[in-house]
Design goal:
The complex is a heterodimer. In chain A, helix 3 packs across helix 8 and helix 4 runs parallel beside helix 6. Chain A is globular, with a radius of gyration of 21 Å. Chain A has one domain: ABC transporter involved in vitamin B12 uptake, BtuC (Orthogonal Bundle). In chain A, strand 2 and strand 3 form a beta hairpin. Chain A is mainly α. Chain A has 15 helices and four strands. A two-stranded antiparallel sheet of chain A has the order 1-4. Chain B is mostly helical. In chain B, helix 1 packs antiparallel against helix 8, helix 1 packs across helix 9 and helix 10 packs across helix 11. The longest helix of chain B is centred in the N-terminal third of the chain and has 30 residues. The chains are: A mainly alpha, B mainly alpha. Chains A and B meet through helix 6, helix 11 and helix 14 of A and helix 4, helix 9 and helix 11 of B.
């Protein structure tokens, strides 16, 4: 029976034995991955983990608090540059620079959150979008941050441990991802998380219940920016090189797409969305090497399009996925999962 | 003299922003969607014009007409294909749909025409023109001013004097009442997308000679146009036009006197400042939401 008798049962992190076994299996799998696969696959899994952190952060803002942001590439860039600059120019160790990147990003998130108190809908979209554009422009014109050339990321060093190979980088990235995911799941069970949801459902009702709307809205921006900043810092190490051009509007849209595709207001959905879109991004970039479809598409390209523009098919597929999710399945992959679960629970009736 | 040169340049690019802003406001007023695909719609139309001129050697004025027809068609198709199937959508899913449309159009243009930067040929000179009182106004600037003004006057006449325009205004004011009066609101909505697409395409055709033509061409103007529309208040057509010219001037003055590098940042700084003071833009009264 799924019945809760007191508050502590409601906020339990692991509710049933099934969930416990599942969690242990998942963690075991995450530990086993670097021993089973290597090289490029491991790199892709690291990317998925990083994007999952961004998607969780953005979902806290969009899915749980009901705000919108088209400027998360800006926070991503701030995190990446803060971490790398702190380590290169100030000699700060990685273990300090990583949280620092998150907190600097959160500070900017707080600042961006302030105008959001008076703005909504398209007005908020343009304000956040403007922020993202401004960050990219400033970074690419500022000599201190390497200008257009970008920056080389130093090595991740934790005490005597130097994360130099793909496996070691995977270990650090995945550890941070797991910690942040558990933190997000817990956050949503606290007073703060419930306040976010209340604001999303009805701002006026939330205010009437005694929730400080202005404080929790800016806090939501700050938390979201914190996650994105940490992910940006990790991204700098995964790519080993950062340049301002990569943090563009398309990246912000891709982040939003991960949240929408995964499912608004669902942590597991964010991870699924990040995994699907990152995988597609990697696979569609080399679509001409696909077994049957690849040569066919190259032929089509020769006749009607241009072969060198073929990787652009990635944007087309992303756009099509976003539109079909918005039209047919507004709850995203999480919605599909919930429907399947309900179906099997009542099976065969 | 640099002062007047900056005014001319600012008004010229401002005219383009104003047209993009008008295109966005036309859609926003009827369906409450900030149309993020506006820029890419204009970009595709401009690429069609480019192909007509370069590959099929069609004359400039014929191309102009054919492109506008294509834009009308494109807008109508997009509305029918993406917006109409969405049943009872929230603001967020509408934004996601237009963002998805943007990605699709961007990808298509990149696939078809590549990332190559193409010069857009126009029969107007960039270097000669008229010089009233020593201020150089090039032919291309003149063409931009005149075309944008003609487009605005046409839009005004359309909304003021034609039956279709009046019906659009009725749908904008109260869709439910308009339906009760026998106006086919869904069809009107489709036409709105067509009209907006045409307005955007004119902007694209004006911007292409000022910049170079590639799939990223409209990204910046679209954001600036959106910003202008927000500045004017998102629901006011004159507001959007004035917002566009203002933004062009502010940006150009900042670029001329303060810093050329951070020219495109200042626009967004101004927007955020103005929105903090007047959350619904300059020309629209702010409505507090009630319970």
């Amino acid at each position: 029976m799924d019945m809760k008798r007191d508050y502590y049962e409601d906020i339990q992190l692991i509710r049933t034995k099934t969930v416990l076994v599942g969690t242990i299996l998942l963690l075991g799998a995450l530990v086993a991955v670097p021993f089973l696969v290597g090289g490029y696959t491991l790199y892709v899994i690291s990317l998925i983990a990083i994007h999952a952190v961004v998607a969780i952060g953005l979902n806290i803002l969009v899915g749980y608090t009901g705000q919108i942001s088209l400027g998360h590439a800006g926070f991503f860039a701030i995190g990446a540059y803060t971490c790398v600059l702190l380590m290169v120019k100030a000699g700060v160790p990685f273990i300090v620079a990583l949280p620092a990147a998150g907190f600097v990003s959160a500070g900017f998130g707080f600042l961006v959150g302030l105008p959001s108190l008076r703005l909504e809908g398209p007005y908020l979209a343009i304000a956040t979008l403007g922020f993202g554009m401004a960050v990219t422009q400033i970074i690419s014109h500022w000599d201190f941050s390497g200008g257009h050339m970008g920056l080389e990321a130093p090595k991740m060093t934790i005490g005597p441990f130097v994360a130099d190979t793909g496996e070691e980088r995977y270990a650090v990235i995945m550890a941070v991802t797991v910690v942040l995911t558990v933190a997000a799941v817990n956050l949503m069970k606290t007073r703060v998380g419930r306040a976010f949801v209340a604001i999303r459902d009805s701002e006026i009702a939330a205010a009437a219940m005694g929730i400080s709307v202005s404080w929790f809205k800016t806090l939501s921006f700050a938390v979201s920016a914190f996650y994105t900043g940490i992910a940006g810092a990790l991204m700098a190490f995964a790519l080993e090189h950062i340049s301002a051009g990569t943090f563009n509007l398309i990246l912000s849209i891709t982040f939003l797409a991960m949240v929408i595709v995964g499912g608004l207001g669902s942590i597991a959905g964010s991870i699924l969305g990040a995994a699907l879109l990152t995988y597609l991004q990697v696979k569609l970039g080399v679509i001409q090497e696909w077994p049957v479809l690849g040569p066919a598409l190259v032929d089509v390209s020769k006749w009607f399009f241009s072969v060198e523009g073929l990787p652009n098919i990635q944007s087309i597929v992303f756009g099509a996925i976003m539109i079909s999710i918005a039209i047919f399945e507004p709850l995203g992959m999480n919605g599909i999962y919930l429907r399947m679960k309900r179906y099997w629970k009542g099976w065969p009736f | 003299m640099i002062f007047f040169d900056l005014i001319v340049g600012g008004l010229s690019i401002g005219a383009c922003y104003a047209l993009v802003a008008l295109a966005m406001v036309i859609i926003y007023k009827t369906s409450e969607v900030p149309n993020f695909a506006q820029g890419e719609m204009a970009m595709i139309s401009t690429f069609v014009a480019f192909s007509l001129i370069e590959t099929y050697h069609v004359g400039f004025w014929t191309t102009f007409g054919l492109t506008l027809l294509f834009a009308l068609f494109l807008g109508i198709v997009l509305e029918l294909a993406f917006l109409r199937p969405a049943k009872d959508p929230s603001v967020l899913s509408l934004i996601v749909i237009t963002l998805g449309a943007e990605m699709i159009l961007y990808g298509l243009a990149g696939w078809k025409w590549g990332a190559k930067q193409n010069p857009f040929p126009v029969p107007f000179s960039e270097f000669s023109g008229i010089t009233p009182g020593g201020v150089m106004i090039t032919e291309i600037n003149l063409w931009t001013f005149v075309t944008s003004l003609v487009m605005m006057v046409l839009l005004f006449v359309f909304f003021r004097f034609t039956k279709l325009g009046t019906a659009m205004k009725a749908v904008q004011q109260n869709a439910f009442a308009a339906k009760a009066m026998g106006i086919p609101t869904r069809r009107i909505l489709t036409f709105t997308w067509g009209l907006s697409s045409v307005t955007g395409a004119v902007a694209g055709l004006l911007i292409a000679p000022l910049a170079t033509l590639d799939p990223n061409m409209m990204l910046d103007p679209m954001l600036k146009g959106f910003a202008s529309a927000v500045l004017g208040g998102m629901t006011s057509l004159p507001g959007a036009a004035v917002g566009g010219y203002m933004l062009g001037l502010i940006e150009n003055f900042f670029g001329g006197y303060v810093s050329l590098e951070f020219k495109s940042v200042v626009a967004f700084g101004v927007i955020v400042l103005i929105l903090c003071i007047k959350p619904s833009g300059l020309f629209v009264r702010h409505f507090e939401r009630k319970v």
